[in-house]
Design goal:
Strand order of the largest sheet: 5-9-7-10-8
Organism: Albula glossodonta (roundjaw bonefish)
Strand content: 15-25%
Protein name: Alpha-1,3-mannosyl-glycoprotein 2-beta-N-acetylglucosaminyltransferase
Membrane topology: Single-pass type II membrane protein
Function: Initiates complex N-linked carbohydrate formation. Essential for the conversion of high-mannose to hybrid and complex N-glycans.
Main location: Golgi
Distance between the termini: 46 Å
Helix content: 25-40%
Largest sheet: 5 strands, mixed
Shape: globular
Amino acid sequence: MNNQFCFEENTCGSGDKGWNFRQGSSPEVVFGGGGDYPSSPSSCAPSFLGFPSCFFYAALFSYTRLFPSPISLSLTVISVTTLCLHGRLGEGGGAEPGGKEEWGVAGGVDLAKEVIRLADEVDQPDLSDIQVRPEHRKFQGYYKISRHYRWALNQVFNTLSYSTVVIVEDDLEVAPDFFEYFRALYPILRADPTLWCVSAWNDNGREGLVDPGKADLLYRTDFFPGLGWMLLKELWTELEPKWPATFWDDWMRQPEQRRDRSCIRPEISRTLTFGRKGVSLGQFFDQYLRYIKLNTEFVPFTKRDMSHLVREKYDEMFEKEVYSAPSVTAEELKGGSLQGTGPFRVQYSSKDSFKVLARSLGVMDDLKSGVPRAGYRGVVSFMSRGRRIYLAPPSGWTHYDTSWS
């Protein structure tokens, strides 16, 4: 039986309700799956946990456990409780606003007990320390995380034979339209070979840097964001043989892995991290992550046309938008003398000028293999004083300089 993912109620037949769930061990990876396959696989598309149409299977991976179950499990108690409190659990599964089913917090508690029971069924087989160079002993946690990702992704793709995965770490809260977002973007990820992931995260998604009235605005980005992201089995087949021993996310950002492919990311993040303690010791959290704005508006993405995100259409529109914007200096922007609502373009010409301007304007200034966080074709889009700003290289940009790191 081919593991298709289905969300059409009239083709999948009856089944149990999907659930959103998370257990708070650290670090954790969460995977969505599908089940109850129809007679016509072509009528199905990937479905993620929380869709109340079919009988879904899922795999929840924590650092120490694998939880396979005929009950759909994803995310954790904290997420399901939040969604219940907002009356959004059914809506998060793709239901119509106003037509959602109220689940209640008690249901989340019952599911928490079920996950605890399931936790005893399958163990991650290797929790031992990893032999590393003496100077890398302080990075032992990063080595273990990379090992766990490899094991968990092999389990979900190769052992359980799922074709699509959404990964959510255990310290992430999710937006009401988290599942709707991924459900809508799957066809684009599948169809466009220049994409390799869909992420729920905007690295520059702080209050004041995003447009609160543009919850439906989506971008392509050359920077791998992580923090709630979707990948296909084909990508894992490509990456698994050379998966790194440590620092897997920075490894993903290297050109040898990225291969000129992009991700989709939102204007307003669909995840929010609350985990200050971890392998990074909280510094990054205190400086940036705690200020990220989580989307609170349900956007019916599955009813929108997403074809503008395919590269051929997107690049033409993006280039025109960026380079037709008036060029201004950071001083003019911050001085308040500019007339008009924007957008405006602030140009950088070197690694150093990018860093100076990024710091001045409040966006993240680090580069990975030359790629700025949230950047696309070298351009970083953000809001400043209520205006859209593009921090951009000169027109005619062709490639990233990997020495800019």
